[in-house]
Automatic annotation (TrEMBL):
Gene coding for it: LOC103510487
Alphabetically ordered keywords of this record: Lipid transport, Lipid-binding, Transport
Name by which UniProt lists this protein: Cytoplasmic phosphatidylinositol transfer protein 1
Pfam families tied to this protein: IP_trans
Alphabetized PANTHER family for the sequence: CYTOPLASMIC PHOSPHATIDYLINOSITOL TRANSFER PROTEIN 1 (PTHR10658:SF54), PHOSPHATIDYLINOSITOL TRANSFER PROTEIN (PTHR10658)
Any one GO CC term of the record: nucleus
Organism, scientific name: Diaphorina citri
Amino acid sequence: MVLLKEYRIPMPLTVEEYRIGQLYMIARHSHEQSEDGEGVETIVNISCEDEEHGRGQYTEKRIHLSNRLPYWIQAIIPKVFYITEKAWNYYPYTMTEYTCSFIPKLNIMIRTKFEDNNGSNDNCLGLTEEELLARQVEYLDIAYDEINPKHYKEEEDPKFFQSKKTGRGPLKEGWRDTFEPIMCSYKVVEGAFEVWGLQTKAEDFIQKAIRDILLVGHRQAFAWLDEWLDMSLTDVRVYEGEMQRATNVKLTPPPPTLPTPPTPTPTSPKSWFNWA
């Protein structure tokens, strides 16, 4: 049985606001986290259309992260390693798939839907009876759940941040039951890594890694509120393109430095003769 988890992440925003905030956060976060050849490289970013969900945006990215994986995964993968992310954004519904050509049995699928509530919809994504029985639900609190210390920044801590433009924040204990406005990001994550002897450990690692990324990213989306609040969808798409180009440059290795050829010195006929 594939591990099926549903994360519910309330946010002190509206669904319409979060549409801009999410795009801004992903672009900026990807750029900031990319360095030394590791990070997120955008390959495709185009419009798409679906019979059920309408018009949307399709992106394909390569996530370079070999040195960030635990040793037991590094031991079975090549040094040049990346995960392919394919995402279909039909806001307020999105699908994201992660695969790896080097590990055919690795597959992660994330289905997401956003609603203007605090996580009270018990089947937001329309799961089947079988999926509901297998599902584990976890609420993430962007203010009071602990994050990895290496990602902590006081200016991005919702317990201390207050928006100058909206007055929202700091978030107090119990904010999810009283705050207005409020919306929720519902994410169902299916992670499979069917390699004998590693499956349970790998699937637990996948879920923990996704949980950590979701928590940090949603904290940043709120803490950067004043920077994206006045953007239109066109504005944030322009910003997204700029950040993707800048990030791709960071991930492109510099050309090799060729040694400087020695400056030739005059030689006498005798020296040429002796060399020959």
